[in-house]
Amino acid sequence: MRKALLAAASVVLLAACSPPAEQVEQAKAPVAEPAVPVDPTFTGLTRPKGDDQFGYYLPTAEVKVGDYRLDNLHIAGQMGFNDWERGERTKTYAPVMLEFVDITSPARKNALGNVVYSVKLKVLPDAYAVTDERIRLVGKHPKLGDVRLDVKLDPAALKKTKGTKGKDGVTVADGALQVGDTPFKAVAFTWRGGDWG
Question: Do the beta carbons of residue 153 and residue 3 sit within 8 Å?
Fold first, then answer.
């Protein structure tokens, strides 16, 4: 009898020490491969030569992490780059930045007829590179985590859409975006000039 009680107690103790089956399954679940891998060699601030890339790049399809949706990628003109690189910086603006909106926050329509949310998350860069054919950005936000963007620009499409002031909806950039643990392996953008939000 005593042996049987000891055996039963041992089984109970072992079961208490073992993690629940669902925890084991979660531990085995694969982590999604990043859309934009970490590149420790990507540092610094590389600006465009002119204002050809200036404007707002709007995603062609929804890019959403939880309640946060990507609203735009903003590229400044030369004045914006000059100010930033001189150290004239704020907590809410950079010459290359991503803006997300909280779709659960109060919203209204602005004068342009666009829906504007009251809560915006701006991902400012730790590093950026803007050339005639590529835009890269590495940054972070407390609510989104580490953010990495790597898109190729189509200079001919960008020039064409600027002629129509962005009204034709032509895709001018495409590539990948990593937001925290969430990969977006195929993101595409149209272009708009001037104020968007």
Answer: no
The two structure tokens encoding residue 73: 């990628």
Predicted structure pTM score: 0.82
CA angle 51/163/110 to nearest 5° reads 80
pLDDT value at residue 167: 80
Q: Please count the CA atoms within 13 angstroms of the CA of 108 that sit on its side-chain side.
A: 3
CA angle 73, 185, 169 (to 5 degrees): 45
DSSP strands (E only) in 131-172: 134-141, 145-153
Mean pLDDT of 54-72: 96
Residues 6+ apart with CB under 8 A from 182: 32, 65
Bridge partners of 65? 68
- R_g (Cα) of the chain, nearest Å: 23
DSSP assignment, residue 107?
Answer: E
